[in-house]
## 1
Amino acid sequence: MKDATLNILVGGEAGQGLVTVGQLLAKCLVRSGYFIVVTQSYQSRIRGGHNTYAIRVGVDEVVAPTESVELLIALDTDTVTLHQHDLSPDGLIVVDTALGMDGEHFLSVPYNEFGKERFANVAALGVLCPLLGLDEGVAAETVDDFFGKKDKGLAAENKRALKAGVNWTATKKKSKLRLLEVPNPPQRLMMNGNEAIALGALSAGVRFFSFYPMTPSTSIGLNLAANAGKMGVVVEQAEDEIAAINMAIGASFAGAPSMVATSGGGFALMVEGVSLAAMTETPVVVVVAQRPGPATGLPTRTAQADLEFVLHAGHGEFPRAIFSPGTIEQCFHLTRKAFELAERYQGPMFVLTDQFLADSYRAVAPFELECLPPVKPAQKPAETSPYQRYAITETGISPRLLPGLTKQLVVADSDEHTEDGHLTEDLVISPRMVEKRLRKGAGVRSEVIAPDFEGEAKPDLLLVSWGSSKGAVTEAASHMESGGKTVATLHFSQVWPLMPEQFIGYLESAREVVSVEGNALGQLARLIRREAGFDIRRKVLRYDGLPLTPESIMRELSR
Amino acid sequence: MVTVDDFGNYETAWCPGCGNFAIQQAVKQALVALQLEPSELLFVSGIGQAAKAPHYLNVNVFNGLHGRSLPVATGAKLANPNLTVIVESGDGCNYGEGGNHLLAAMRRNIDITLLVHNNQVYGLTKGQASPTSAEGFVTKAQPEGVPSAPFNPVEVAVAMGAGFVARSFAGMTEHLSELIQQGVTHRGFALIDALQPCVSFNKVNTLAWYKKRCSPVPPGYDPADWEAAMKVARTWGDEIPIGVIYRSDRVPFEDHFSTLGGGPLVGRETDREGLKKIMHGYT
């Protein structure tokens, strides 16, 4: 597939520093004004095995990963063996001379001549500068920022290694991989999905976050922990996921906007807590970062297989919203939206992401934070005394007071309860309370974000997707269109509630509709059939733990 | 001036003769003695007959899931340390379903008081064994007798160096009330294991059974002496020591969070400049 982007793949064993090389290069590229899509692929181990860090780079916005490789940076021989077939005709394999590999597509680099082994990562960045046409000054500044300038000796060594790499490569023949220069590069953020979720939470006013480490959600907690002190947030690593969600509910009950983040197995433990948040009408934001299951599954891979699980999690009936961001920007904005809805409708709201998006660095425009105020727990004065925490209202939303802030007492119960919050087994009041809670659903439905349609009306083919595959689907559609047919896309960044009137027209007016999903059952297609009565019979499904790519989608469709 | 009447008088779902009544009395007495306002108190409970107790008091209440009171209480306390947080639930909640949270609360030394109604049986679900039932205790769920040794909460608490460890029993309301006051006042995690009879489902550990065995720790007993406390904590059977078994001056959990020095999390403004700086860090 010929396009204006370059795909760079750094590969090696865990522990060799491939992520460091990848991060340094990605940062350089973003600072030089390029757009990137990073795909991190790693195994569940600390040393050995095979991991990769791919950066697809372009002058114009890049939206998806790709399979062909123009520049393969191999830190070990396995990387060459495993990826050389993906190499483009003009592709280049950069290896350490010590690996003893050479040939037509190889650039064998004598890293040991550039300095000590520990600086090889920086030397590698140096090698890449002339290859890609990157400014050495930008690279030097990136290295300084990454490693810090505190240790002057180390900083000088880094500079030397970088220079050595640059100088050596500059003597080699002109690279065919040089990127077009971006004049006056605008300032962009290099950010991945999890960082965007964390920033979105901070901007929304999160005050409490509890978690149990679980790939691929852990970096949300680490990010918030790093910023907790200065932002007035408490982050606690709980003893288990059951504690995490219950702590968040306790903190929120007392008035601190709270969030938890986990993956499928951890969410499984939180399910009773979801039900508790719904019953006590306590706001809480739950981030589920998907990976292949069932059970432990493939801990470090990606999937979109927990939609139905998150939709139905929590015994009993109550309203919820589930957001499924497809871009870094959506990760930020939809996390904010989740906080807004959690506070407004007093219950659990969900953000569904996955390993691919969580770890995928992109270049995004800075967010206009001044225009994005935090969400504040609504404190409404009590209309009756004693205070009725669960006063039955037309909207189902009861005015909320926080315990300890006024003389009024706040009573919450996981049992069915009367309007004052006290336990009841009265079977006349109980169904009224069920109805009250469900009535809040009308409000949630009134705020649903419609799916994003792109393309010609009445297309030959409509590709339906949700979550992180947005870019791959968009790119596949655009490629397929050059073949003569019209291909449109419909992307759901909110998968619940579904409002059929927002999208049924698109489905019905397309010649053919295909659902593209990262699971084996076509879960969104099933949900659309259930809610809108429209049967999407053809599906492109990927469930090998790797992200959907434009190529994989087109391969399936051409069968 | 807070009086007993401020805490209300509610009709309960408890059996006549239930040990909960006496414990309830002790709680009310303690709250009055401490002059705590109803609105500054948060009682968190789980599920069980004991867990209904906070519903029968004029206080802020969060009656949550079985076994999960401690995490809720921890979250609430962190959000608003100005609240006096008391967890009140049974032996099933705290020593069974919520075992991991009990260990974590002790490790944390979070400034909350855990008052356990320990009647060595599951009352609300009608008579199954609880983690503190004696080995060999016969129930419909354990017709051949409980096959495990009982959990000794006081022993575990002392072994973990919990902040304040005490035991009393429902038949000694004044004694229990005094321990509750000390527990609430103690800055850090306080466990009060309150033994009580279950007139409906536990025909072995009756009021008389406890009365015969419960004996206060001797005068001169030093609860700061961990080794002595371990010996006392492991004592159970013909003699059941009651009183303050152990107390330590460990740093409370909350003190480790620099940001909590700035007051409750509740109501804080978001530092917009700080947020901008964080975002700028991604350039």
## 2
Amino acid sequence: MSTDWEMVIGLEVHCELQTATKLFCGCRNAFGDEPNVNICPVCLGLPGSLPVLNEQAVEFAMRIGAALHCEIRPSEFARKNYFYPDQAKDYQISQYDLPLNTGGWLELPDGFRVGVTRAHMEEDTGKLTHVGGSGRINAALHALVDYNRSGVPLVEIVSEPDIRTVGQARAYADELRGILVASGASDGRMEEGSMRVDANVSVRPAGTDAFGTRCEIKNLNSLRSLGRAIEYEAARQIAVLESGGVIEQQTRHWDESAGRTESMRSKEEANDYRYFPEPDLVPLAPDAAWQGRVGAALGPMPAERRAGLATALGGAPSDAETDQIRAVVDLGLDGLVTAAAEAGAPPALALARAANEVAAQGDAGLRLDAGSFTALLAMESGGRLSATQSKTVLGALIERGGGDPAAVATEMGFEALGADTLSAVLDDVIAAHPDEWARFVGGDDKLMGMFTGEVMKATKGKANGKEVAAELRRRRG
Amino acid sequence: MTGALALAAEVRSGARSARQVVEEALATVARGNEELNAFLTVLSDEARAQADAVDAVVAAGRDPGPLAGVPVALKDNLCTRGAPTTCGSKILEGWRPPYDATVVQSLRAAGAIALGKTNMDEFAMGSSTENSAFGPTRNPRHTGKVPGGSSGGSAAAVAAGFAPLGLGSDTGGSIRQPAALCGVVGMKPTYGRVSRYGLVAFASSLDQIGPFAANVEDAALLYDVLAGHDPLDSTSLPSVPEPTMASLHDGVEGVRIGLCRDLIDGCASDVAARVHEAAEALAGAGAKVEEISVPEFAYGLSAYYLIAPAEASSNLARYDGVRYGLRVDGDDAEAMNTATRTAGFGAEVKRRVMLGTYALSAGYYDAYYAQAQRVRTLVMRAFDRAYESVDVLLGATAPTTAFDLGAKVDDPMAMYMNDVCTIPSNLSGHPAVSVPFGAGNDGLPVGVQVLAPALGEAIMFRVAQVVESGAPHGTGS
Amino acid sequence: MSGPAEAAPGRVTLSRDDVVHVARLARLELRDDEVELFTAQLRTVLDHAADVAALDLTHLEPSSHPIALENVLRPDEPRPSLDRDEVLAQAPAVEEHQFRVPRIGGEAP
């Protein structure tokens, strides 16, 4: 990108709330059920039906607002009127003039703050399947509608156009996802559609204040797509402007396989949604007591938890540790690490094992209890198990849903190598490599690895790497 | 025809079987409905089955409910599971809802019998029932005249003796005005007193379901059964209603009646004369009658004809040929929507949908819709001021007696003027009732209207009872 | 898009084009004679509404409800859904237990 230009990005994120039932009716809020089994007069928009607001959805929406440092205010629902087959009433109940949450912010890991304009409540649409042609919307012959998703509660989070780089955009989406999961409001699964990101992209000459015309990019199914799409769109707009053209405000669809954004066939009438206050609902004004309970119940957000782990490590984590910390908090394993550290396990070791071995086991890893984990770490740090052995035992513990690490180690034959055995093995290895031993004694430290490796081979991994290294140095003198 | 109260007593005591009552009603309908076209659907099988069920409960010595065995005529915009619910429109011809309206369930629980679904102006838009897609209903008092609207079918059914009770809906006067024109009692409750769940919406902030009956006592009886909180309607009032039957005959000694000029002066002289005579009857019974002026009422008509169509334009968007009702095919979904709605809606519905769309559209919202909602505030405050000095208001219900079929169909504005006395109560959400009181110069019924403050149904019915008692003989029931 | 001109209080600006425009927004197709008729009729209604449009009511809040309720909520507990067959039996076109519609021209607004 030419250094003369600056990109200006705002992100709109739609987040599905993980309530048991839909926003305005008691149908189940479930993913993946048979089509049209979770429908009722309300979410199907049958004549005569009326909406009634789900208390838990409000709770979740308030948690999101609190986590984003928003002001939670008296709010109103409004009708957004437009015809579309997946919109059961041909209007969506949303919030317009008076949203629940306004004026917040989200801090990126590097400290940069992105403003959050609003986070309001609205209902989701049904799901369309386009049939015939290539399955792409423009070539289809007909379409099928499943209303299971119709009426599922959403919170739409709109950022200020404060983002200036692809990296910031990805970091914002990533951090927001972590916040949504940490608040309990959502499972944040972009691939399942429970978190959907749209990007508003415009460009302007670097150093100027006026906003350029923006385009909204939709169909971003991953953080990678988000980044690629923004790159593409910014470049596209710059090319247009540099050749003397004008940016047309429009919605564009990101085509992942083609690697470009495409203009959707624009309708003649610009969207006149004819918003007006929803007469079937009454205002929502959570009182100070409810807001207080929400704030008090909100656990620490990812940023705070990452900071907590960094402190437990003694501050100033290395780059590798920073990545491990991110991964561990992202996966919700930080509680495990903290518990182990508090029980006396070496924090860096706990972090490393959690970020690598535990994380690799997915959901099963989340069920590992802190007691087993801590005991295992003690065995490793105390030299009773080698790193390799420790990882193996850890895998087994997770697979079995827990257990006593010592028992598992014994079962696997991982007794610690006795000092005599180690000595004998070293004798053999040194005898087998006299030239190398001479060079090592002479100061060639690089051969440490070779000798350690040979000892490991000979002991089938049972030797403790640190012990081997210590003994090698001792023998060298 | 025996009144509902007496009829229920006979059925409960076993003196008459519900089945016998229903057979008689069905026979009466069979003789008279073809000429009047009051019923669109007669629920013969269902009514017989319901009657048998009531008789079984009586035989078992259990209480079948306060409306045991009483046939009720249901306006065809009330959802009745498995039975046609057309709203007087081609677009819903043949549609059978998969659920019952809450009021329909309340009636069943009270032992009442749903006799059939009655004719109405399409989607409740009209004041003569001439906007029905299934032909007009004729006024039983003079078959060349309209019965009023939009609940003309239910009013006619009660006036013709087909059923002692009827249900209608009132958005701008659609219960009270046909009651006046047919010479029966028709009442609109306080907004939120009767659940709207299952009432096909016309204008959500104005619609209310209410009773028709041949006399005030029966209307109060039916109202008491219907009133109460419904968790399926967010606009349903949470408080427990005061039963109105208990105080119905308490008289009007000392009650302050405001004889409202603005609800009389614009009316035909014979109608105005009846209202004054009703005031004299009340004075004779001990009430304190004084003239009162509420000039703000004059703005009600214009405000109503902006608010109601605006909400209706949104409420009727769902009739798009996708999920139920009429579908006329098209090249694509949008063309199908357009072809369906163009074929399925009548002229008055189209007129109001376009008017409402216009009032809400970008550039017009503030001048029309928002302004009309300010007028609503103005009218609400005017009512509050009036009720500082009086307990109820008295006026005409409709400006004239029943007009000829076809007389006003080509002049929408003239048709809209029928609602000038009834609209203010819809805007304010207050209760009001029309009571037959004498006849016009043409011998056709005149209705006198009693208006009360919010939640004032008890005093409203008390005053209505005295008006009825003072009515000239040979009119009304 | 040529939108409606700004409305001046008391002055009705409803044009034939406005009627065609709102008809399209409302998914209605009007014949030429209907456009004429509806334009005249709607103008009459809006003329009548001019008295309201001209009032100075800036000191009043618009009321979207005649009642003063707030915070009406329901617990997050499942209730029985409708029987799918009963619902689909009323649908104009069904395929694979879903509502079938003709091809859709564009993305959702």
## 3
Amino acid sequence: MNTTNSISNQKLKWRVFNDKLFSIVMMTLAFISAVPLLSILYQLIKKGYKQIRLNFFIEVAPDTMEAMMAKVNHEIIPGGIANGIVGTLVIVGMASLIAIPLGLITGIYLSETSKGKMANIVRFVVDMLQGIPSIVLGVIAYIWIVKPVTSGFSALAGSVALSIMMLPSIIRSTEETLKMIPPTLKEAALSLGVPYYKTVLKVLLPTGMSGISTGIILGISRIAGETAPLMLTALGSSAINLDITQPSSAIPLLVWEFYNDPNLIDLIWGASLILLLIIFLLNIVAKAISKKWKVQY
Amino acid sequence: MKSERLFQYFLKLGGVLILMVAIGIVTTLIAGSIPTFKEFGLGFIFSSDWNPTEGRESYGALPFIIGTIVTSILALILTFPFAFSIALFLGEYFKKGRMSSILKSMIDLLAGIPSVVYGLWGFYTIKPIIVELGLNAQGFGIFTSAFVLAIMIIPYASSISAEVINMVPSNLKEAAYSLGATRFEVVKNVIIPNAGSGIFAGFILAFGRAIGETMAVTMLIGNSNNIPTNLFDLGNTMASLIANQFGEAEGLKYTSLVAMGLLLFVITGILNLIGKMVMRKFTA
């Protein structure tokens, strides 16, 4: 009796030990994933913060000669990333103008049509669009816009590529948010004789606004850092350019340009840091909206 | 009544437009790659010669297909222990509370970092370490890019898996606990068998992401047009090749790059489809 007891005791200890070991290993592995994040942030902040002065926001990127001269004279490299900031605003703004209305309409359509062949096909297609690699969308925008429409690289082509990237997140968040609104709300409006379109526009949309705008902002933050599709479409430009039929720069494109130019390479840190700050800020805003303006029914 | 119909048609128009965009993408890619497939046939996929010299032009996608698959699979293997731990952490061990919200915001931040910044980090932080360890003379190559890719896909792999693990019915877990099972035994015998296919789906979707990643890989893989012979060899991926060579491409080279885009589209599409189909089982 005693021996069996001690055996089962040992077995129990072994099981408890295994359990403890597993939790420790799991938690360690989970938090090790923070190391790269901290390392990236540390590197960007340490090397980038010095470059962020006022000039960095209002001057365009220096050309390689200017930068070389400054380096030879041991001066700070002149110039900034104003062309990139304006370019990103223009390209992302245009992409949003294309994607938001279409995304909203499609999202409402899907939430209002839960069954049906057409709606299911559209859902499938949205899933498919979400999985397309961004570089392939760059190729598409090149064929659709760069060659026939603007006959040359253009900000517009970049916007088209990014707008397709943005669509799935807007459509999904719109559909899912609207589906969560209790049907009684809609029924109440309809029973008061409010026309269907007014019910959707003035009751459902405002109620779901926080969820929908969260989706839109997350969509914007997803495309703001995209580089690959812009390399094939917007190409880059050394001047500030507001004409959407002309090539344009963008912050991620500038990072790529600086990386490839030994004279400008010191500027990558400031540019990346600003890009990262913009994206993180968008994420924080999205989170704040979804937390603060959660409509209670 | 009439306005109602009209509005419904208007909504449907959005769906139709999305459909047209998708059909447009597929037909554009197919039409654009016809000259390449006419010239090389299926040889485009199985040939390993990428030679733009005029007169002796020959384009084969095999080195890039292999480079893509090897890099992505390696990334998936490297990401697994971390993403799975995070998923268990968020989906089972700490569903709420400060610890989980810290980890969650960390994952969100990781997901937000642009590809090009990951590339810089790989170049300035990981590459010197690889050189230091003597794994590879220049520090570029399949392993370096797979390592950075592994970190990039942690958010994708872990968030879906966490969701699925969270969905395992609590009465199953409670039954196991009441029989005296430890938490580890519950994970092993209840959670993994129940959530296994969902976790699999999460990793498949992350795999699709890794295959389509461009910038970080371009900056780290070494861009060689040969079939890699070992994990520390230089290589190239399909996405990275398009990014590098599309700008100046014309004629057969241009259509071959479009064909490469088509292949990339098909591969990621199939992976996505598998992932979504497995996931649907859970949400339905």
## 4
Amino acid sequence: MSDFVMPSLGADMEAGTLLDWYVKPGDAVKRGDIVALVDTSKAEIEVEIFEDGVIDELVVPVGVRVPVGTVLATLRPAGAEVPAAAGAPVQAAITTRAPAAITTATPTPAAVAVAQPPAPLPPPSPPSAPPTPSAPGTIPAAAGANHRLRVSPLARRVAEQLGVDLSTITGSGPNGAITRADVEGGPATAVRTAQPTVGPSPPPEPVDRHAAMRTAIGALMARSKREIPHYYLQQEIDMSRAIDWLRETNLQLPITDRLLPSALLLSAVGRAVVEMPEMNGFWIDGAFSPGSGVHLGVAISLRGGGLIAPALHDADRMSLAEIMAGVRDLVQRARAGRLRSSEMSDPTLTVTNLGEHGVDLVHGVIYPPQVALVGFGAVRERPWAAGGMLGVRPTVVATLSADHRAGDGHTGSRFLTVIDRQLQKPETL
Amino acid sequence: MTTDQDLRAIVISVLTEVAPDVDPAAIDPDTELVEQLDIDSMDFLNIVVAINERTGIEIPERDYPKLSTLNDAVGYLAHAQKQAAGA
């Protein structure tokens, strides 16, 4: 028997709210299966399980916020004898086992709720209680027509099946999220409002999400600046070969397969990291711990504010087409709030391409516990001296922010040189 | 042949899919879209792909600068359409 715990979905996460279970006791799961939906303060994350087995017990019910490391469910080996209870309906599955690990800073309604007798799945939230235990520093969600609908994927599916208009439902989940129970109208918490349906134009992000994200980013960046002795380097890179090659290549490709300069930049970093693995990994307990694989954290700015840097897994082994597809997928899911746990916890080196928004260069702040961050400014035409002549070429300023505990400027300088070299032979990227 | 009005509706619809928080009525037809909608190169590529899906018009990369504002984009598409019909 092993425990499936609330994972740390990034160094800035202290607790998460379980929004939905996608499995029930008795379900067989394989490593990598998405088993739950968790709300960190930054995003809703689909959480993958790390080993094969059979779900034995769901310990934490939907709607409860628990610290990282709390046992969410227990898992038994796939071949193990199946206890009699396993075949029982889901309603019987959650036992009285007290989730003792729940130690939120202040007693919250939800924390109290879990101490109550076994709840069915999905459990009704206490009708009179506020919908969510707010994270420290967050502002309770304002209810109202302007509130973006927050709906768990399961609830959305059920709503589609039942033909329920989600805009007529008041959610009882965290921050007013609509849960399956609300859609089914079972528990008394689902209040169907008399409010007419608002138009299809999406309302702005709720205030609490924005504030929570600012708090999380602020805490993490403060930690980075407090703990990591950054050093900074920059190098202007001639992009004329890369851009020419890209133009020629794109002429041969259908629109949907066109490549962007950012794909070349990511690929160049991925390959450079293979040559210089000392830039790829973490500073943990006073020592460098190399990353297992090259998982580039791709900094994605969210519309309406905020930043998230999910992992592009094994970027060093991807073709440019795969990088394009991977980044497109990450951006879409980051903005829709559908990232996976491995993408949140795995990045080994972050790349920010702030030049997309026009700046010449970016001096980035390292994402702890990573040891480096690569930044790219805008690719644009600039004066370039070569062979005694002054000309105009497309260039990009690459910057490196690196942890001085893990290495010196000499190493960082070589790293930027290797990235430059990669970009001079775009056909090999 | 799609009318200019329909082309405009298509472009606005594509823009608001890529930038869902933007009020279509608030788009200034003569201000740079990249700046106005805060979109990046991936967003722009997605816009070009979506316009191609809806209108069949293939926009070559070298013509991207000709679609920098809403009015420019509609003008470009109308012209491209006429050229294709005349060819």
